[in-house]
Every structure is written in structure tokens, then in C-alpha cells.
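2024-03-11 09:14:02 DEBUG pipeline.ingest accepted 1 chain
2024-03-11 09:14:02 DEBUG pipeline.ingest length=258
2024-03-11 09:14:03 DEBUG pipeline.predict start
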Amino acid sequence: MKKVITLLTIGLFLLVISCSKEDDPLDNSIAVNPNTNKQQTGSSSNDLLSDKKFKSMVIEVVYVAGFEPSSTTINNFVSFLTARTYKPNGISVIKRSIPSPGNSPYTDAEIVTIEDANRTKYNTSDVIAVWAFFADGKSSKDTDTGVILGTAYRNTSFVIFEQTIQGLSDSPVEPSRSLLETTVITHEFGHILGLTNLGTALQSNHEDAAHPKHCIEKTCLMYWSSETGSGIGNMVSGGSAPQLDAQCIADLRANGGK
């Protein structure tokens, strides 16, 4: 891993445009308003964290064939959500594949178009829905010195550039794929939960002024990392994904989370 890696980014562009492997927990006959899932990143943080309005959560995981996240990664993701959110009626994951859109490298606008064409789960009366897309290509924002692994770009939407992750994992000198996937997914969902100072209010002064919307603590999951390959290796050198630090957890708890 010789490139400088821009590990994780937030998509803050505001958008108002308009075969399952597991049982579908939503009744699609229920009227939904897709626009409720097309809002600014972090704006649904309280709805995701608390059970005040939504008692359960469904994660729609859509991937291009050949770029499916590992079952270990999905299990780690659900464990992360269970530890931080109140959803007494449970958290469900629906996985399915789609053909390659064939547009790599993907622009932000192309990622949105893919979601709008393929997303089927939207909020209902007491179920909040999340979209996660695992792409077969890289981000158009990649450079010769840095690559983007994931972006949270709406209130309940994020993309993982799985092809890039696969190219940076599972060799003798690189982290395991599930470890890198887990790190990227939980970081991006941290932004959707409003971290850091992105819809979930700060309870202490821990936002990184040099890298806004990220935690200043270097060991925290929400720390901004744009370092050499050895830098990202250090983030996961213990063999497990970075965890949220106490300050980020305090922010989430003040906004209705665990």
C-alpha cells in the first residue's frame, strides 16, 4: 500500500431529487415518501439513534455482483448499530446484487442516480430505512496520491467503493478485507449518526478544526486519516476496527443513542 489514502469522506451535497437474501421486513404496500430519505447527511441522526419515532431499522445492502461485503463485515456493522441505537423491534439487513452500472470511476451524481434507480426501502411509520451501495469501481475524486473508500452523502445513504477496498486488503502486508470494510462502513455510518458535529451536537470540544466533521482523537473511529499506507495500517494494527472514543459516544447519548 504505497499510496496516500484518503480513508473516509463525508458527502455534504444536499439532494432533493427525487432477489433478497433475507426476508423483507417491510410491506411495500404501505405508502412511503421517498423524499424523507433524500435529506442532508446527519439530519436523521436522532431518528436513527432513538426509538422515539422509529422502533426498527432496515438496511438495504445493494452490491454489484462480485463486490459483496463479507458476512463478517455485515455482522460487525449490525453489532455497531445495536450498541449505539435504540431499536426495540430489531435491525434487519436485506442484501441483493445488481448488474454493473458501468460508470467507474463514479461521480457523486452517478452514485445518487444509482440509488434512485435501485433503492426499494424507504421510511414507513415506525421503520427507518438505510441504503448502502457497494460499488464495482473507484471514486472520481481519487488522485494519484489518495483514494476514497467511502462516502456518506444523504441522511440514510452511503456508498462503499468496494473495488478500491479489495485492492487494498487481504495481502500479507495489508489488513483483512472484513477489517477494512468494517472500519469504512462504521465510520461512514458515524457521519449519518451526526458525528462529528454533523447533526449530533458536541458535548465537548473535540471536532478537528483542520478536518471538520471529524474527531480530533487519533484513536477514534471518527478521526480523519489521510496518510501513507503505513498510516492506515496503524489504524487497524490491533486486528480490530477502531472504536468511537468517549467524547463521540457522549455526543450520541445526548442525541438519543446508547
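2024-03-11 09:14:41 DEBUG pipeline.report Helices lie at 45-49, 71-84, 108-118, 162-167, 177-192, 229-235, 246-254.
2024-03-11 09:14:41 DEBUG pipeline.predict end
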